[in-house]
Structure formats: structure tokens, C-alpha cells
Design brief:
Blueprint (H helix, E strand, L loop, with lengths): L1 H15 L8 E4 L3 E3 L3 E6 L6 E10 L2 E7 L3 E5 L4 E10 L6 E11 L2 E5 L4 E5 L6 H13 L3 E4 L1
Parallel strand pairs: 2-8
Antiparallel strand pairs: 1-3, 3-6, 4-5, 4-7, 7-8, 9-10, 9-11
């Protein structure tokens, strides 16, 4: 009986001695980016065995959160705005956790295109990707419009 109590006591001590995780978020290239920039979110958390990311974005005009469990996440926003990022860092036994949050401001890139009689504003966020935007911009320019960055 003494051996079982001792084993139980040691097991309890081992579980209760798990370190408290500290959540931390690193954002590259920074907290202000443009639409379609690749952003890398990296956990700089300490003593975390499990990570849970929640990344805000808009889909079809609705606010949604993408969820990921990797240590590093690459993300691209296709809408302008300020978006929240949440990270939960958990201990190995999932009994201890810490939270971190950050915001990323995503700025649109817009051009004013004019041909003297007509003008139009075109922005990255109006298109499905940067290459689609660049093709549209080239179409404006080949149709005689002069496009300048706003």
C-alpha cells in the first residue's frame, strides 16, 4: 500500500509541476500590411505544448475566424481592415493555458485611372488576387488610361 501511495504522490507532483505556458505572437513583416501581402504569424510562446490560432477575416462580407494549430501560420488577407489574431498556448496536460492577442491593419492599394474623359478607381481588394488586379490594371493602360497610385 505504501508503494501505491508513493507512486500516486509522485504522479501528482509531476502533473502539478508542469510549467505555466506564456503565449506570445510574432508578426512578420509587421502589423501594418497591404491586401495580398503574405503575413507569417509565429508563436514565440514559452513552455507551450499545444497552440491554437484564431485569425479574423471576412468571407462574402461576413466576419469569420480561421483556426490553425501549427507553430507558424502563413496568412493572406484579401480585404482591407483591422483584424484580430488570438493565440492560446496550453500545457502538455491541457490544464494550464495563456492567451495572447494582436491586431493586423491591412491597407488597400488603389489606383486612379483616367483617359481625360473617364476615370475609374481600381483597388486590390476589388479583385481575387494580385495577379488578377495586375491584369486589370494592364487592361486599363492598354485602353489608353493613365493609372497612378492613390
Amino acid at each position: 500500500m505504501k508503494i501505491h501511495l508513493f507512486t500516486l504522490f509522485i504522479g501528482f507532483i509531476a502533473l502539478s509541476c508542469q510549467k505555466e505556458p506564456t503565449a506570445c505572437i510574432l508578426i512578420e513583416p509587421g502589423t501594418t500590411v497591404t491586401v495580398f501581402d503574405n503575413v507569417t504569424l509565429t508563436s514565440c510562446s514559452e513552455d507551450a505544448h499545444y497552440l491554437n490560432w484564431e485569425i479574423e477575416e471576412f468571407q462574402n462580407g461576413n466576419q469569420v475566424f480561421q483556426v490553425d494549430i501549427a507553430a507558424s501560420v502563413n496568412f493572406i488577407w484579401d480585404d482591407a481592415g483591422t483584424f484580430d489574431i488570438y493565440l492560446t498556448a496550453s500545457s502538455e496536460n491541457l490544464k494550464k493555458e495563456d492567451f495572447a492577442s494582436a491586431q493586423v491593419t491591412v491597407e488597400d492599394v488603389c489606383y486612379k485611372c483616367t483617359n481625360g474623359a473617364n476615370d475609374s478607381d481600381i483597388c486590390y481588394s476589388d479583385y481575387e488576387g494580385k495577379s488578377v488586379f495586375e491584369a486589370a490594371l494592364a487592361n486599363f493602360e492598354s485602353a489608353g488610361f493613365t493609372c497612378t497610385l492613390k
